[in-house]
């Protein structure tokens, strides 16, 4: 049975009156300031927007700092200490300075942009920026293309083109030369830029019990063990893939999970992230144990799955939770975008 709630956890719900597609914390420019970048879509006006909001520490309200109007609806949003990157459903990619975006001005602008038929055809499904001073962004699309974009000048180069025979839905950097992609059939692909042409390792999506139909929606890579990644997708599925044991995925929830614990969700898992704040995991941590995984789902669950432990439900909403982000400078705080035109902030004790 799942552990419901955590004593003294505070939840603040902030109505927005627009669809909240995605949300990310921005790196704080001062210890007393928290800011978030939010992808909105106004269904009445059929207008997308990307906005930076500061969080009032006392009222827990969001105040608009600056905004930008993208060419079409935002499909993916990621941030590092230096940059934020947004992709669109029309196939363009835009990179912003994370600090300049927080300057109090009516509008902010992209540092570089990439688009055109040679880049992506249609929706870009996933993007990721490599931190630690790297100047490249990776993008994947439903068109089967994998591209690298230089943050300095917006130039790009093609890593792979599936010519529409494959489709990629998620991507995550593992090192300055390696990244992992995901797509249909619960499949994962490991790429190494030092060995171009194709993926150097693949997981075929064999999660047991004959189940291979499903889509990977989100990927994260272990912060200190780059050979281990986390994936979330259809039917409440969350699993870890270790390159050292490529045919033996560690299933944490959903398809093929043989543990006695009742899963928190059996619907689409839209986002997964490793997280190190959960106290129970740190008390029982061992070198062979995975870090706990936080996830959000279509059936409105924000939860934590800790290997060998009962899952923990942090938030249960009557609508989908589209995305979430853990504040890396204050990991007790989690911000979520809700389908019913709201933002939720979860403050853990």
Automatic annotation (TrEMBL):
The keyword Iron does not apply. Coiled coil: none annotated. The keyword Nucleus applies. It is found in: Nucleus. It comes from the Eukaryota. GO terms for cellular component: nuclear pore outer ring. Its main location: nucleus. Keywords: Nucleus, Repeat, WD repeat. This is Nuclear pore complex protein NUP43. It comes from Linum trigynum. The lineage of its organism: Eukaryota, Viridiplantae, Streptophyta, Embryophyta, Tracheophyta.
